[in-house]
Amino acid sequence: MKGEIIAVGTELLLGDIVNTNAQFISQKCAFIGLNIYYHTSVGDNSSRLATVLHSSLSRSDVIIITGGLGPTKDDLTKEVVAKVLNKPLKLNWQWYKTINKIFSKRATIMPSNNIKQALIPKGAEILTNKNGTACGIYINSHGKHLFLLPGPPREMFPMFEDKVLPKLFELEENLGRIHSRVIKTYGIGESALVEKIDDIITNQTDPTICTLAKNDGIHVRITTNTDQDKITKTLSTVEMRLKEYVWGYDDDSVNQLIVKTLKDKKLSVSTVESCTGGAIASSLTDVPGSASVYTEGTVLYTEQSKANFLHCSLTEIPQGGIEEQLTIKLAKRAKEVFSTSIAFAITGALGPTAPKGVEVGTIFMAIVLDNKIVSKEFKFYGSRENIKEKAILAALHLIYKNLNEEPLDG
Amino acid sequence: MKGEIIAVGTELLLGDIVNTNAQFISQKCAFIGLNIYYHTSVGDNSSRLATVLHSSLSRSDVIIITGGLGPTKDDLTKEVVAKVLNKPLKLNWQWYKTINKIFSKRATIMPSNNIKQALIPKGAEILTNKNGTACGIYINSHGKHLFLLPGPPREMFPMFEDKVLPKLFELEENLGRIHSRVIKTYGIGESALVEKIDDIITNQTDPTICTLAKNDGIHVRITTNTDQDKITKTLSTVEMRLKEYVWGYDDDSVNQLIVKTLKDKKLSVSTVESCTGGAIASSLTDVPGSASVYTEGTVLYTEQSKANFLHCSLTEIPQGGIEEQLTIKLAKRAKEVFSTSIAFAITGALGPTAPKGVEVGTIFMAIVLDNKIVSKEFKFYGSRENIKEKAILAALHLIYKNLNEEPLDG
């Protein structure tokens, strides 16, 4: 089966949004072995969408269309698909009732133009939407499989996982034979990493290996469409070469690993944040069930607030409140007052300006554990936003690394 | 002139990268008034790229192609374009020398496959690349204007600004006259908003009006390519209709507006966060210079930590630590201990599970100001991540709204 993706929305052509839907769907399709040959974005324009749809129908078996299912006049995906496939739109009572329920839950009356969202092409199937009023639609037309999905990623992503993927497996029994593993690294650049495994990459046939520069470090992906066991050997070779940089696999995220390890070791953590302003606490508590290991934290954004926390006079705080010894003191104090097994503290200058004597991008971190104190200075470059992102990631990795070296609580 | 964008690269179709190039180019083109009607992504495949190119040539005047200009065999954009336009590739000595210079600067010998990067179609013009070895190429073929640009954004973005934009202005003297304003709303859905201004949207000719559903609410964009003054009248009409929902314009973000208003009114704010885990503090401190108005905050993620903060016994904390009166108490206590003019507190259940008696998505917020206490219950739907996002946004808007009603300090 050949697949392609069409995104509908003038906002894409104006550059107001980036087409993350196409990326998400492509990743999922690559993973199950459904080849995607084209992405197209087209505006909210009937005749241009119809033209695009005609050429997709002529060359692809699976056509996934995102966007244009909203309640406004601009939203015309269903109308154009209905016309091109000659399947008139009909009111679907089930979805009509669902939309009504959504509005009554919000204690508002359904605006009349939302009725449009309950119309679906004759013979089509509804794909329910847990996060909005636009249902997805599946149409089988002369052996061509069309999926119409809502544009907002927070509606589309779960719908694709829950409704589209199972349907694709139904349609084609050969799907799902791709096996893939990802090794996640941190602390090494892409070209340095490639140098370490260049011979393996050059000689690859099956499994194939590629490197991907991601926000949380460089990933190495090993893929086969034959025997899953082939991955295991390559994985351990790559792993051995990159040992000190490897922190996770596949869907791992470092905040989840921290929470899991804390739970496993029956430990708890608290945070003191200056420059990151609560973002590290926020990342840790993103993980469901984190309340059993993350108890509390504080954001100290001024010199005075740091002095108050340390019960010391303002004169004892170094100017700007950015310094290694101060950061250690903050972590020590946190371990005491928050009664956690581990306490983490961070101070630093994100820019665009910095206190006297401190360079933009200078970050200090400290971790206090039962049997040791670790502190580290970092130097990051880039915009305020970039430096903040890098500092959060470095903090999480520092916590995770030290956590792994900790014995069980006892 | 009609334009379109083609991205070449199998990595796009595998979802390894997202097509930020198309967004960047689209934004720039929208700004100068060059209409982009299609984005297409196609893999590193000669015949499919040729097909795409043929249909682009049949419908567009300006075709901007990104990617496929690298030194490897996979990179075939120039080869395909040369064949389709019947303009054979020739070595360009100027660029050949430039590439050589780049390699000698790196103190390495130019790999032989890089010679490929000095080949350009006969009659084409070079667009120099400050950040890499792939030159851009401009071709005028029977009145069709083709731009071939490198794929990496850090090479493509500056090349587009420095080389492509000036060329586009040369080609079409009517470009560059677009004026645009954005009104940002919060607290109203897109269809309810559209109902309020439906007549204006329906009767639009110049300026044009469109609505955009963004993460921070629904935006209304008003655009003209004639007289800038035409925007002003429509802007104030739209503004009047949406009055209670309008919070910002153009590049405004609500956290920046909060920090600015706090500064203007000489006020300060502190935060107590349970469910959002520090994300509200993090958003406020994202703003450069926020330290003068955001002093400190705390993340209380357990019942015990809330009891400690309130200096009360654990039995006084409602089960789960999610409740309106508790939230008010936390804000009151924060105003006291952090000595800020305003204190904000939030408790709630993000899911996937919730404490007994509390529904997932229930959020309580409280603000304590000098002369009043405001508290509010919210009910959000969606995943843990969605509910968190919505809660953060609602919190910022609640703070901003109440801040605007505050008199100057002193």
From TrEMBL, chains A, B:
Matching InterPro entries: CinA, CinA-like_C, CinA_C, CinA_KH, Competence-induced_CinA, MoaB/Mog-like_dom_sf, MoaB/Mog_dom
Annotated CDD domains: cinA
Residue spans crossing the bilayer: none
Gene3D superfamilies: 3.30.70.2860, CinA-like, MoaB/Mog-like domain
Domain MoaB/Mog: 4-170
Protein family (similarity comment): Belongs to the CinA family.
Record-given protein name: Putative competence-damage inducible protein
Originating organism: Alkalicella caledoniensis
